[in-house]
Amino acid sequence: MPKTKTPSPTLPRSDATSPARFRERLHEVIPGGSHTYAKGDDQFPSNAPPFLVRGKGCRVWDGDGNEFLEYGMGLRAVTLGHGFEPVVEAAARQMRLGINFTRPSPLELECAEAFLEMLPAAEMIKFAKNGSDVTTAAVKLARAHTGRDLVAVCKDQPFFSTDDWFIGSTAMPAGIPEAVRNMTIGFRYNDLASAEAMFSANPGRIACVILEAETIEPPRDRFLHRLRDLCHARGAVFILDEMITGFRWDLPGAQTLYDLAPDLSTFGKAIANGFSVSALLGKRELMERGGLRTDQERVFLLSTTHGAETHGLAAALETIRVYRSERVVEILWRRGERLRRGIEDAVAGLGLDGYFALLGKPCNLVFSVRDRDKRPSQPFRTLFMQELVRRGILAPSFVVSFAHTEADIDRTVDAVQGALGVHRKALDEGVEKYLVGPPVAPVFRPRA
Ligand SMILES: Cc1ncc(COP(=O)(O)O)c(C=O)c1O
User: Fold this and answer.
1) Is this structure's pTM higher than 0.85?
2) What is the H or E stretch that residue 310 is in?
């Protein structure tokens, strides 16, 4: 376990018992043992801390005071760092003034204008709390606008919403009626022919296409632009999901980097440094259907009790300010690039080409770990994460934040070098010899 210790902050009540007991209690009272599947036990090696009690910058501490350098940070939401003072202060100041009134707050207008100023292609915006709220709202608007039922998702991308229209298309569709499942169809990334075939097989039936601008492969041959044009030619709405690319690829997102104007776009995660704020932006013609200035049948668009809590919007405004003044996006790319170079040198030095690879953009690196036959392997992935935990690094990905310094990156590269040394031995001697607990498993699977 990592050596650095700090005094334990306030611990959960059940911490009087061991971490194993704590884990057991979590599973007794919370299905999956966590409120987000991606944080669950089945996603981490058995030596990962069962819970974290505190974070600062890119560091987190478990209940015993063990310190870890972490990557990913709040499922990619905390891009400036944990407890980032200017954002915490902005939110706290607003909390003291009241977080939710019976009429809109001026912050709703201020924040709306700040976003629209960054995205001239969008004319209206609505805030919500989770990414899923806004992707689902985008789909609903598209269906109302086109009078069509089918939704087309990019099959090579992992996630768009916790709602039925998307979960029904995954390997975990239990509880979702067949009729709903059948309304979501798919196409392949960078494969315009697959999208054309999809439209041809469903003439006049596809309401929208939803995708991320990029996950691992970059867009080729103006794929995104051509897909948007295809949507328009076939009367469908083009929705760009910027949940991950937003405030990371660029400010505000991949659509500015790639000079692409979607009909609707969705943001969340990083836009308020981890405070719960998401946003749907788009063309007036579509968005106004949720408003009071339309002659058409109205759409019930994103109306929730906590939808525009003032402290979240204050946090978002401050986050935008910091992104501008500190050139955050540039730092994310630069840190990621340093990490990529360091790790790729380590991989080459250990002769592990083909057995371990970094994928994606420097600002959003993920890793692929392979077995002796160079096939993706969950046991080898788990072993790699286990060896990083031993070296004080918690890394389900290598997604950097603004808080990761060059020294943090270099320390990570050293830890990766050590972890890959074990990977090398496990390739020769068998992964079972080194792996301590069960391997991780995909979130989307029909059986526990
Ligand atoms: C691309 C993408 N879209 C939508 C979502 C849903 O966001 P949320 O978890 O905030 O509901 C996610 C979440 O991981 C995501 O990665």
Assistant:
1) yes
2) helix 310-326
Percent with pLDDT over 70 in the chain: 96
Any bridge partners for residue 67, and if so which? 61
Q: Which atom of ligand 1 is nearest to the CA of 157?
A: 1
Q: Which atom of ligand 1 is nearest to the CA of 75?
A: 14
Residues 289 and 142: beta-carbon distance below 8 Å? no
Instruction: Identify the H or E element spanning 357.
Output: strand 356-359
CA angle 339, 250, 106 (to 5 degrees): 130
At residue 14 the predicted structure's pLDDT band, cuts being 50, 70 and 90, is very low
Buried b (16+ CB within 10 A) or exposed e, 361-374: bbbbbbbebbbeee
CA gap 123, 108 in Å, rounded: 15
- Listing from the earlier edge strand, what are the strands of the sheet with 52-56? 52-56, 59-62, 67-70, 393-394
**Is residue 3's pLDDT more than 50?**
no
Determine the Cα–Cα distance for residues 274 and 179; give it in Å rounded to an integer.
35
Q: Give residue-wise pLDDT tens across range 227-259.
A: 999 999 999 999 999 999 999 999 999 999 999
User: Would you say 422 and 434 are in contact if contact means Cβ atoms under 8 Å apart?
Assistant: yes
Place of tokens 């939710």: 100
Each residue of 173-202: b (16+ CB within 10 Å) or e?
A: beebeeebeebbbbbebbbbeebbebbeeb
Q: Which two tokens mark 398?
A: 């290598």
Nearest to 264 by CA among 290, 243, 282: 282
Backbone angles phi, psi at 18, to 5 degrees: -75, 165
Under a CB-based contact definition with an 8 Å cutoff, are residues 284 and 77 in contact?
Answer: no
Neighbours of 60 (CB within 10 A): 19
Ligand 1: does its nearest atom lie under 6 Å from the Cβ of 215?
no
> Do the beta carbons of residue 287 and residue 124 sit within 8 Å?
yes
Cα separation, 224 vs 240, in Å, equals 9
Tell whether ligand 1 has an atom less than 6 A from the beta carbon of residue 132.
yes
Q: What are the residues facing 209 on neighbouring strands?
A: 152, 238
Contacts 24+ apart (CB under 8 A), 194-199: 195/152, 195/227, 195/230, 196/230, 198/152, 199/230, 199/234, 199/236
SS3 34: coil
Give the closest residue (by CA) to ligand 1 atom 9. 131
From ligand 1's centre to the CA of 119, what distance in Å?
A: 20
Chain-centroid distance, C-alpha 87: 20
